[in-house]
Design goal:
The complex is a heterodimer of chains A (722) and B (208). Chain A is an alpha/beta fold and 722 residues long. Chain A is 50% helix and 12% strand. In chain A, helix 22 packs parallel to helix 24 and helix 34 packs across helix 35. Chain A is elongated. Chain B has 208 residues and is α/β, with parallel strands linked by helices. Chain B has one domain: Rossmann fold. In chain B, the strands form three sheets. Chain B has a six-stranded parallel beta sheet with strand order 1-12-7-4-2-3, with helices on both faces. A four-stranded mixed beta sheet of chain B has the order 8-5-6-9, with helices on both faces. In chain B, strands 10-11 form a two-stranded antiparallel ribbon. In chain B, helix 2 packs parallel to helix 4. Classes of the chains: A alpha/beta (722), B alpha/beta (208). At the A-B interface, helix 2, helix 8, helix 9, helix 10 and helix 11 of A face helix 3, helix 5, helix 6, strand 9 and strand 10 of B. Strand 9 of chain A pairs antiparallel with strand 9 of chain B.
């Protein structure tokens, strides 16, 4: 990843990673086991409350970072600890090398430290002629392979036992079997000898408690305890973001860290160290202790109102554990040094734009990382903001400039969508009999090869905006007056989904309106980092649909809905548009919640005894809008026999323009989804999002599957008692 | 949470991370437990974990240091230590309370008295300011940790005050120990005893 020059090269790396069958299966197994283990570890705890507490406490520490550093330094020096502050990675490495020189240290043992990975410390020390041994088993393995970690908590998750056995055979000069138990014992003996000989031990720090100048180290293997016990010199390298005011703050984070990382209640060893402790190998019987605090952009980040929350990260690695993209390509293609969602962001701030610019595109925006983050960091939106910053710094590329120009002009945009119906003519339209959907017969050249894993939908003959005036019901004394926010996909590709929705309300006392001035929600613009255009379309929408006139703004595309809910953030409150955006966002509701929770439709409203149906939860519904129960409940009330699907809330791989940019990854994520759907034995797959319909229907049609894909509004309209 | 509930929760959580938990009346029974355990260990083999595998010459050399079965108990009171040393002597084991750097190849049992325990995580809290205490709990094949039942707290916040006192000393070194040393770094397969003990036994004592 380090030396990728352009997007083409990056995609090449990604393709190679996708071909690494072992790595993919290893991470896949973990991805399936992790949510179960995590849930068990947090059982009976108020997880959301804990996350909110951690976020608030970390925000406070970030605000006071400079002050906490001074306090730590004062207390540390009283205790005889040498404290250093390094402006950047190079400075940190030089400080540590000079400590080695001053203390006459030649051999160094290291306990795992992501901060040392960030500064590439080993390279520097080895360049100075020092012998450095990583003692965490996974880190030792990758050190010998001259690789970086592929996961923050499980650095060697990409390697097989055979690869490790081969490596150990080289190191020991003896043939090793591939039995894991035995390999671990070999490492134990080999590394024990390194501990015995070491002059200096280097550790990271999970916590730096300012009040008492105590560092906290969290490990499973116990190597940190040996690194900080045997050698006569101890150097801890610690990011400024690890500073925390009190022991209580550290204990609070410790409640979440191992649970969120690996589903452990606590790691085997948590070690609290303050001052130069007893060391019988040192002159005077006391260790020499140094702490090197690393800034490397952290002070600047702490002052950045938009991005400071990034420093809340407690390095649990959970954002990688749940990421569908990481699951396919592994860590080396999903982060520069830090991996996972947080890695995409940190790469930009710690390692620079060049390292970040391609990586940052590889986020599908499924929000799984945001939902799992122990510190409540809004990772997906920060990733997009990093992208927007990179574009602002380097210039927007012609595609996205063009598209944002088009989208800002609703008439032009909709005109182009209409004419797409004619543009697709040369490719032909075929009817997907099984799927009740129309597909493009031949894919246009630019899509042909990599996109052949799914059928693509044809543009409808008539958009919904042309149909609506004819089907708008007349309702006397309505219970509710609602506006439909159609979204481009439903308006122009799947108008039948919106039509079905109107029919479902028809005689339920709901007056429906479809304001014609509405345009794209702006999500695709956000995905492309076009923030100015994103705000302009938002302005058009809040003026097109006056929230004062409606009880609800119903949106049967959850991607649009969750983006509409974010309008207040786009405007940042304040002026009249900001207030309007607040009121607008308040009224937005998804179709399942409206039917189930507001209209309180019941089994009596629908014909019962329908077919077996399974469900796919769109990312922007279950996580974006936090809606979990309503769709399953209304589906069952609608007369369907609901059969749950494995990994129902995992992304289908669509992600809007993402599937166009990274079709191979999209295809692989979709394959898992389709396998799980077919395994349920259901006749119908129901989902709430037109994008998911497009992806899953296209994939199943390509497979020739008998499972029919339908939007929620369609399946309910079909069984509605008239 | 009552005392009994705390003991039950501690036992369940510690056993979940493969610790062996035993309830015993006092240090006398704890001493017997340690001596029995050392006697039964690997049917009197002297081999330390890993020494049976093919190793590099340097690592192999370290294996040859070990000649006797060794029990280390660095933080016991003089009276308790004397009783343990006497029992070890009778069984032909070496009993030590200091000089553990001479045994870096490994010892059989490290026996410590802990200052507290956390029920919710199944952890013991150990004042490890002394290097000998740290080594006894790290280079041993089996760590036997004794703790009184009345020092088991429900959660982190319960031990916070005691921990704050322990870490306020200058210098200080304190450990939460939860199960044996472990790794899952190769193919996520759990293996116990990577750098530290292969087994953790926790003895819950009514009194010391």
């Amino acid at each position: 990843m380090q030396n990728v020059k352009n997007l083409g090269e990056y995609k090449e790396h990604v393709r190679e990673a996708l071909d690494n069958e072992f790595q993919r299966q290893a991470i896949d197994r973990f991805a399936q086991a992790y949510p179960v283990g995590r849930a068990k570890a947090f059982e009976g705890m108020d997880v959301e409350g804990l996350i909110a507490e951690i976020a608030a406490a970390k925000d406070d520490s970030i605000r006071r970072m400079g002050e906490l550093y001074e306090q730590f330094k004062r207390e540390a020096e009283k205790a005889g600890i040498h404290v250093h502050l390094a402006k950047n990675a190079g400075e940190a490495n030089e400080i540590i090398a000079s400590i080695a020189k001053k203390t006459g240290s030649k051999k160094i043992v290291k306990s795992k430290s992501m901060t040392a990975e960030e500064t590439l410390l080993n390279h520097h020390l080895e360049g100075e002629g020092l012998e450095v041994t990583e003692t965490d088993l996974g880190e030792w393995i990758i050190q010998m392979r001259h690789e970086g970690p592929s996961h923050m908590v499980m650095p060697a998750i990409h390697l097989s036992r055979d690869q490790v056995a081969g490596l150990f055979s080289q190191v020991t000069g003896k043939d090793q079997s591939n039995e894991i138990e035995k390999l671990v014992k070999v490492a134990r003996r080999e590394l024990r000898q390194r501990f015995v000989e070491a002059d200096m031990g280097i550790s990271g720090a999970n916590f730096a408690i300012a009040e008492t100048a105590t560092i906290g180290l969290v490990t499973n293997e116990g190597n940190a305890r040996l690194c900080t016990t045997l050698p006569r010199v101890h150097v801890a390298l610690c990011g400024l973001d690890k500073l925390t005011p009190t022991l209580h703050d550290a204990l609070r984070v410790l409640r979440a860290l191992p649970r969120n990382a690996t589903g452990q209640t606590l790691t085997s060893y948590t070690t609290w160290i303050h001052g130069p402790n007893e060391d019988n190998a040192a002159p005077g019987g006391k260790k020499e202790m140094h702490i090197v605090f690393l800034d490397n952009g952290r002070t600047a980040l702490a002052e950045d109102p938009e991005f400071r929350q990034v420093l809340r990260c407690i390095r649990c690695g959970a954002c990688a554990n749940v990421c569908p993209v990481y699951r396919m390509v592994g860590g080396h293609e999903y982060g520069h040094i830090y991996i996972g969602a947080i890695g995409l962001i940190l790469t930009y701030f710690f390692h620079g734009r060049d390292k970040a610019k391609h990586l940052v595109l590889n986020c599908i925006n499924c929000q799984a990382c945001k939902a799992v983050c122990a510190a409540g960091i809004d990772l997906p939106s920060l990733i997009k903001r990093v992208y927007a910053r990179i574009l602002d710094e380097t210039g927007h590329d012609i595609d996205s400039t063009l598209l944002s120009m088009v989208m800002r002009n609703r008439k032009l945009f909709h005109g182009l969508l209409r004419s797409a119906r004619f543009a697709q003519k040369p490719f032909g339209v075929k009817k997907g009999e099984k799927q009740k959907g129309n597909f493009i017969r031949h894919l246009p050249m630019m899509f042909a090869k990599q996109h052949a894993f799914r059928e693509l939908p044809a543009v409808a003959d008539k958009p919904f905006r042309d149909i609506f005036p004819k089907i708008q019901p007349k309702v006397e004394n309505p219970r509710y007056t609602v506006a439909i926010f159609g979204g481009c996909a439903q308006d122009f590709l799947y108008p039948e989904q919106l039509e079905a929705m109107v029919h479902t309300f028809a005689d339920r006392g709901v007056a429906v309106d479809f304001p014609l001035q509405q345009t794209c929600c702006g999500l695709p613009l956000m995905m492309m980092g076009e923030r100015k255009a994103e705000k302009e379309v938002a302005e058009q929408n809040i003026h097109a649909i006056d929230p004062a006139k409606y009880d609800y703004i119903i949106c049967s595309c959850p991607s649009c809905a969750s983006h509409l809910k974010q309008y207040p953030e786009i405007f940042g409150g304040g002026d009249s548009d900001g207030l309007l955006a607040d009121r607008f966002a308040d009224k937005v509701i998804d179709i399942s919640s409206f039917l189930n929770d507001v209209l309180e439709m019941s089994a009596d409203d629908f014909e019962q005894g329908g077919p077996k149906a399974t469900y796919h939860a769109p990312c922007h519904l279950c996580r974006g809008l936090n809606v979990h129960d309503a769709p399953r409940e209304i589906l069952a009330k609608g007369g369907y026999e609901y059969v749950p699907c494995k990994e129902e809330e995992v992304c289908c791989g669509f992600g809007g323009s993402y599937s166009v940019k990274f079709p191979e990854i999209s295809q692989q994520i979709l394959t898992n989804k389709l396998d799980n759907i077919e395994a349920t034995g259901a006749e119908v797959l129901v989902t709430d999002c037109p994008g998911c319909v497009m992806q899953i229907r296209g994939g199943l049609a390509k497979r020739g599957s008998d499972v029919v894909v339908r939007h929620m509004s369609e399946v309910l309209a079909e069984r509605r008692k008239k | 949470m009552s005392n009994t509930e705390r003991i039950e929760l501690f036992t369940a959580k510690a056993e979940a991370v493969s610790a062996v938990v035993k309830r015993l009346p006092s240090m006398k029974e704890a001493t017997d437990y340690v001596v029995d355990l050392c006697g039964a260990k690997e049917a009197c083999q002297l081999l330390i974990s890993g020494c049976g595998e093919p190793l590099s010459q340097k690592a192999e050399d370290l294996c040859e240091i070990k000649q006797d079965k060794v029990v280390a108990a660095p933080n016991l009171s003089q009276g308790h230590y004397d009783a343990l040393a006497k029992a070890c002597d009778k069984n032909g084991f070496v009993c030590k309370r200091d000089g553990l750097r001479e045994h870096l190849a490994g010892i059989d049992i490290g026996f410590t008295l802990c200052q507290g325990a956390i029920a919710e995580t199944g952890s013991v809290v150990l004042d490890s300011d002394s290097e000998e205490t740290r080594l006894a709990t790290m280079i041993s094949e089996i760590h036997v940790a004794a703790v009184t039942v009345d020092s088991i707290e429900q959660d982190f916040y319960g031990v916070e005050k005691k921990l704050a006192e322990l870490i306020a000393k200058t210098p200080s070194y304190t450990a939460f120990i939860t199960g044996a040393s472990r790794t899952a770094d190769i193919e996520r397969v759990l293996a116990l005893g990577v750098h530290g003990p292969l087994e953790l036994h926790v003895l819950l004592l009514d009194e010391v």
